[in-house]
Write the structure tokens for this entry.
Amino acid sequence: MRPPGASCGRAVQAFSVWLALAGFAVFGATTACDSRVENQGPEDVVREFLTRMAQVHGNPADAKLAYELMWSKARQNLGERAKRASAAAGRQVAPEEMIAPSRFSMAFVPQTYQLGRRQSDLAEVIVAAEQPSRRSEKVWVRLEDGQWRVVVRLPPVSPISKRPETNPKTRHELSEE
């Protein structure tokens, strides 16, 4: 079993689930929590995640729930992006607002969700379409704080670039020349 950190782990990527991280995407925020996904198995969490991602368009409650169903590394990544967007926008931007739903698509319509391999805190869910091609993809989930979370791989946050320090005295001396 390949852990989510492995280089070949294309959990949701193989599903053509591309989460573009728009710096100033605005989809609202909510603090509502949906108890329907609490204490559910990996298959149920993957189903709920894909359903919510398909419904995120303009629905802050679905964006919040989709965000909550992501594993901690993805939530940290979106949190850092939201922090930067907040500084640039001059208002508080919630991490779930960084999910750009227009970049979400599935290669097929899922019809079945079956638990594949499971090893302690890591499980594989096989999502498949019965017709027309019997296509299937694997989605990884990880158990975190007693809840299954979907392993969503996001590009790393770029380091913040800083201008080289300039000495004001040096600039002043240059302008006198």
Residues 108 and 133 are 9 Å apart (CA to CA). The two ends are 67 Å apart (CA to CA). Confidence is low (pLDDT under 50) at residues 5-35. Strands lie at 20-21, 99-100, 112-119, 122-128, 136-144, 147-150.
